[in-house]
Amino acid sequence: MKKILLVDDDQNLCILLSSYLVSFNFSVDSVNNIHNALAYIRNDCPDLVISDIMMQDLNGYDLIKFLKLNNLYIHIPIIFLTAKGMTSDRIKGYNLGCNAYLTKPFDPKELIAIIYNIFNQIQLLQKTVLVSNYNFVSDPNLLKSFKLTRREKSVLTLVLQGYMNKEIAISLDVSKRNVEKYVSRLLNKTNTRNRIELIRLFLGYS
């Protein structure tokens, strides 16, 4: 289940929008300011953020700047849902890296379409990257010889790129515990003792 974080100081909007998104099988939490949003994201990284721009103290533009400066959170897609409808506002949002910009009042069906499109694009990109990254392996026959499952190959590819378990979990949309399980399987199947030996085996390091 995809997790969405709403960031808006309009409590009524958050209640209504949360209920609507939950009806589409999304898990939804909401906060009323940027400080709380950043604290939430550090503790429980969401799959997508929907944020207002105009809030007291820090605003939505500040939020996206913070996220894009941190490699752990740079991948989180952001939708701006705001009353700031000037062309210059939208341009600023897109230049900062938002994935979509909706002006209030909005059609909730359009928001759902945007969310599905974002998740579909991410999934397509992940598949493309995982396939292309098998070229990292120095001897492609190794992949066949160990009879790795598709998920094990996906985890291996990210391990070879230096990703840690938490980052792999976020990238593949699985729990950290499942990633640990797959890494253990990789070590057992390849008869390696740790991640370093695993990387050396597949990348051909001596």
TrEMBL record:
Q: Which InterPro entries match?
A: CheY-like_superfamily, Sig_transdc_resp-reg_C-effctor, Sig_transdc_resp-reg_receiver, Tscrpt_reg_LuxR_C, WalR-like, WH-like_DNA-bd_sf
Instruction: Provide a Gene Ontology MF annotation, just one.
Output: phosphorelay response regulator activity
Database matches in Pfam families: GerE, Response_reg
Task: List UniProt keywords, sorted A-Z.
Answer: Chloroplast, DNA-binding, Phosphoprotein, Plastid, Transcription, Transcription regulation
Describe the location of the HTH luxR-type domain by residue ranges.
Answer: 141-206
Annotated Response regulatory domain residues = 3-119
Report if keyword Plastid is assigned: yes
Q: Which domain of life is it from?
A: Eukaryota
Which biological process, per GO, is one annotated for this protein?
A: regulation of DNA-templated transcription
What start-end ranges are recorded for coiled-coil regions in this protein?
none
Name of the protein: TctD transcriptional regulator
